[in-house]
Each structure stands twice: as structure tokens, then as C-alpha cells.
Design brief:
Keywords: Flavoprotein. One of its GO terms (molecular function) is oxidoreductase activity, acting on the CH-NH group of donors, NAD or NADP as acceptor. Belongs to the flavoredoxin family. This is Flavoredoxin. The protein is mainly beta. It has a single domain, classed as Roll (Pnp Oxidase, Chain A). Helix content is 14%, strand content 37%. The relative contact order is 0.20.
Length: 188
């Protein structure tokens, strides 16, 4: 029998999404946003939910753009730091040693060290409650050559993305392939 835990923000796994923005003065910033994911296929879109109190909130509204970087396991400390510190108090790129790269397509930066990046144009904003959901149209995806599979698409085991445990507030990695989607279910 299942035990009720009440209404909670629990979902497994939750991706670790590092949102890149420029502030009013053009300073690059990163924040760790656990609330987000792909939300539309056509046009390709991702949604991230931020509190109004975050430094990145105003930047997304003002610039109409953001990036989403997928950090590898090797960047766990940097990913955690940009979720703890505020861009109001300093330059997170300088503190972490990450290298800001100016997107050529949207008015937002990303870190060169992220193996996979989405560049997004703000498409919709939805006030939900404590959080505002920003829907970004993905205008480009970028991947390091070293994380691509033979078919030219990103390989999750080469990216080694972090996932967030919402229950215990921990970071985890991903494991091996268990079965092929849209195939393994064909056999009862």
C-alpha cells in the first residue's frame, strides 16, 4: 500500500539546467534551475521556472532570451555554486572559472565547458504562483564533438549529465541503457 506524502515537488529524475543570461549591464550570469524540461516538439521548446526574486528572472524578461547548459558530472561543484550564489553579489563565471561564450543567435551567454547547450528565444511567460514559467523556443543546440555518438547525435553516457534528487537534494549520474524506447514495449 502506498503512503500519502501530501502535495510536494517530487519528480524523479529532475535535470540540472544551468540558465545563462546577461544582466542590464551586460554581465554574464548563470543559475541552477531544477524546475524545467522540454515542453513542445514543434516548435522545439524548453520551459524553466524561476522565482521573481532570482537575478536571472529580470534578465530573461529584459533580454527576451536565455541559454540552458547541461553540466557534466565533472562540473557538479560549479553547478551547485551557481545555484547557491546570486549574480547580484558577484560574477559567477569568474568565481567558478567557467568561460562565458556569447551566443551568436540569442542575447544570452553559456559556459564553454558545458558539453551540451540550448540557445533559446523567450516565447511565452506564465505566472504560476511562486514561480514564473519561461518557455523558450530552442533556436539551436550545440554539443562538443566528444559527446556525439556515431550517428552525430548526443550520447547521454558521454555527456554524463547531472540529475537532481528532489527528495534528498542530491546530485546523481545516469546509468547504462536498459532498453530501446518505442521498441522494448512491443514484446509483452
Amino acid at each position: 500500500m502506498k503512503q500519502s506524502m501530501g502535495a510536494k515537488t517530487l519528480l524523479f529524475p529532475t535535470p540540472v539546467l544551468l540558465v545563462g543570461t546577461y544582466d542590464r549591464e551586460g554581465k554574464p550570469n548563470l543559475m541552477n534551475a531544477a524546475w524545467g524540461g522540454i515542453c513542445c516538439s514543434q516548435p522545439p521548446c524548453i520551459a524553466v521556472s524561476l522565482r521573481k526574486a532570482t537575478y536571472s528572472y529580470a534578465a530573461i524578461v529584459e533580454r527576451g532570451a536565455f541559454t540552458v547548459g547541461i553540466p557534466s558530472e565533472a562540473l557538479m561543484a560549479e553547478a551547485d555554486y551557481v545555484g547557491i550564489a546570486s549574480g547580484r553579489d558577484g560574477n559567477k563565471f569568474e568565481v567558478t572559472g567557467l568561460t562565458p561564450v556569447r551566443s551568436e543567435l540569442v542575447d544570452a551567454p553559456y559556459a564553454a565547458e558545458f558539453p551540451f547547450v540550448l540557445e533559446c528565444r523567450l516565447l511565452h511567460t506564465l505566472e504560476i504562483g511562486l514561480h514564473t514559467q519561461f518557455v523558450g523556443e530552442i533556436v539551436d543546440t550545440k554539443a562538443d564533438a566528444g559527446v556525439l555518438a556515431a550517428d552525430g547525435l548526443p550520447d547521454i553516457l558521454k555527456i554524463r549529465p547531472l540529475v537532481f534528487d528532489t527528495a534528498h537534494r542530491g546530485y546523481h549520474g545516469v546509468g547504462p541503457l536498459l532498453g530501446q524506447a518505442f521498441s522494448v514495449g512491443k514484446k509483452p
